[in-house]
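User: quick one
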Amino acid sequence: MNSDPAVEVSDLTKRFGRFVAVDRVSFQVRRGEIFGFLGPNGSGKSTTIRMLCGILLPTSGRGMVAGFDVAKQPEQVRENIGYMSQRFSLYEELTVQENLDFFAGIYALARAEASTRLEEVLAMGGLAGYRNVLAKDLPGGLRQRLALASAIIHRPSVLFLDEPTAGVDPISRREFWELIRAMAAGGTAIFVTTHYMDEAEHCHALAFIYEGRLIAAGPPSQLKIGLHGCLVEVAVQPADLIPALGVLQAHPRACDAALFGAGLHVTLDSPGAIPALQASLREYGITAQRIEAIVPSLEDVFVSLVAREVGV
Amino acid sequence: MRSRIWPIMRKEFLEIWRDTRSLGFVLVMPVLMLLLYGYGISSDVKRVPLAVYDRDGQPPARELVRRFTSTEYFVETVRVGSLRELRQAIDRGDARVGLMIPEDFSQKLGAGRPAPVQFVVDGSDSNTASIAIGNIASISRSTELAPRDLRPQVFITPKAENPVPIELRTWVWYNPELKSSNFLVPGLTAVILMMLAAILTSLTVAREWERGTMEGLIASPLRPYELMVGKILPYVVIGLVDVVLVLLLGVLWFGVPLRGSLLLLMVSSTIFLLGGLGIGLSISAATKSVQVAFQLSILATMLPALLLSGFFYPIENMPAILRAITYLIPARYFLVVIRGIFLKGVGLAVLWKELVFLSLFAVLMLVASSAKFKKRLE
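Assistant: Done. Structure below.
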C-alpha cells in the first residue's frame, strides 16, 4: 500500500450546457479515510461522484482515482472502485446469492475467489441466512447491505457511496456505519455523500458543496471551531418565537438568526453580546427563558456557511 | 479471466423466468395473437347470405341454386320475386349476394347455348365482396349443368341495370383454397417476432435505467459489447422458441403446409430477429422509461409490420410515398421469405436478395445501437 491519496481531485468541473453543476472542485481522500461529501439536493454531489466513477466525463479539471485518471483511464478506474448508487440498485427478481454471483461475474472474479468473497460479504452483511431470498422480499436495511455487499465483492480500494442511508431505519443506519468504519479501518478509502448532517459526524473529513462549489472542507471538529463568532441558543415561549426571530435578525450584534427546533440559534459577533440581546428582547416584551452559548452541530455549520455564501 | 457475457445472460434468463408477466408475454402472447388473428379476422368468406330471384323455375335452375347453397360459402336466406325485392333484401342486409336466373335459362341450356345468370354483389364491404366473387366464379366453373361447357359470367355491379360482364378464369397457385390461415400464419410470425424482439430488448435496457442498476453496470469494468451481447443472446433464444411455437401451432393446428426447408426458415428467422433486437436496443438508447420504451417499440414494429409489410394490404395498392417507405420495413422482406418457404417451398436461389437485405438491416441496427451505447458510458 502506498501513501498516495486514493482520490485526488483538482479543479474538477462539469457543465451541462450553460449550467455549471460542479465548479472547480478540489479535494483529496486518503486511504482508510471516510470522506463525507455534504450538500443539499441538487448541489452537485451526485454529479461529482459520477465523474469519479467514470460514468460522466468531466468538462475540465482532473480527477485521479486509485492512481488512474477518470477521463483518460476509465477502464482502470472502474476495475478498482466500488459504487453504490442512490437507490440500492439490485435485481429484484434475483436472490441475494444470485445478485452477488452476478456482480462477481461482471467483475470477472475467478471461480474460487468468487465463492470465497461470496461467503465473506454474506457474513459481513449479516445476509448469510437470506441467501435464497429474492431481493424484492428483503427489508430496507438488508437491501442496503446487499447493495453494499454487491459493490465490494471485488475488493475495491475506493468505495463510492451515494446517499447510502436514504430511506433506511435508524438502527440499520447505525449498523451500516459500523460496517463502513470497519472497511475504512481495513484501508479502503470511502467517499460518501449524504444530506443527513448527523451522519457527517461519522466521517474523518468533510467537504461542503453548495451550488456546485466547495464552500468548506476539513475534519468535523475543525469545521465546528472555524464557525466564527459565537453561537447561542435562545429559548422563549412558543408564542414569542416569531416576534423574537424578527427582533434578533434586526439586532446589530447578531450576524444571523434562525429557527431551530422549538428555539432559536443566533450567531453573535462575540459572547459579550448576550446581555445586549436580552435587553432588546425585553424592550419588545419578550422574556428569554434561557440564553446560552452552544457547541454548533454540523447543521449549524452548514446553515452558517450557506448564509455566508449567499451573503457574499 | 472469465467471460463477463455469461453472467449477464444467466441474469437475463433468471429475470425472465421469475417475472411471470414477461414469461407470459413471451409464451402466451404469440399463441394468443395467432389464435385471435387466425380466427378473429379470418378473411375466409363463408356462409354468405344469398337472395335468389329465380324467374325460370325449371329443374336446371333449381339445380344451379343447389350447387351454390350446398357449398359452405353460400346460404340461401331469401327468395325474391322481383328486382325491387332483391334490392331491398340487399339494402336491409338480409343478403349480400343476389342470384338472378333469367326466364330462358333452362331453355338456353337445353339448346346447348350459353346461359348467363346474373349475380348482384353488395360492394359496401369490398373485401368480402371480392372474395365472394372469387367463390362464385370457382363454383360456376365446376358446375356442369349441361354436357357442354357452361360459361361462367359474373356481373359485378352495385346497380342491377347496365350489367358489365366480366369473365373470370383464375388458377390459384400455392394456396388453391385461398385459406386465410395459410397467409396469416407466416405473416403473423413476422409481426410477432418483430414485436417481441423489439419490446423485450428495449424493456430489458429501460428496466436497468429505471431501476438504477444501469449506473452500477456502467461503473463496473463491463464493456459495452459484453453488455449488449449478453442482453441480446437470451432474446435470440427466446425468439427462436417463439418461432417454433408459432410454427407448431400453424402447421399442426391451422394446417398450414411447410413446403420449404425448416433450416432455412430458422436461419432467416434468426437474421430477422437480430434486426428486431437492434431496433429494441436503439429505442432503449432513446428513452430510459419502461413505459415509453414499450409504446415506442409497438409503434416502431407492430404497426409497420402489420400495415406496411404487405401482410394485410398489398404494397402494390399503396400510394407511391407509402410504397417507398415499405422498402425500409424489414418485415416486408421477411414476409417474402417466410411465405416463400412456407407456401412455395422455394429456397436461397429465389430468396437471397431479401436475406441479404435483412442481414444488412440487422448489422446496421446492431452497430448503430452499440455506438449509442458507448456514448452513454462516457
